[in-house]
Amino acid sequence: MPRCGHGYGRRRGRCRGRRWIEQLPQTTYFRPHGQPQDHINTTLLTVEELEALRLVDLEDLTQEEAAAMMGVSRKTLWNDLQRARKKVINALVNGYEIRIEGGDYILK
Length: 108
Hints:
- α1 (47-58) packs antiparallel against α2 (63-70).
- This protein is elongated.
- It has 108 residues and is α/β, with parallel strands linked by helices.
- The mean pLDDT is 88.
- The protein is built from three helices and five strands.
- It starts with 18 loop residues before the first strand and ends with a strand.
């Protein structure tokens, strides 16, 4: 069954390809200390955005190496990386909780 381009919520352009990831995160929820839970905003980080951050910023791989490991182009990896960095810094600066879930990926 096609994942995009048909039915409700049709998107323009090409289908978003699945990214390959090596591992699922052990922790999927982070909350700022001292914030009341009922008054806190949430930032959603996808599993593949976390994988892009992990490969480039933690493992110190080049974008080309990380893109090859995830099975995407360097430009696609760069887009995922920029989106993830913006989400994380926004959550840190503004005191939002971070949830890691969802996305379209294949576990290696």
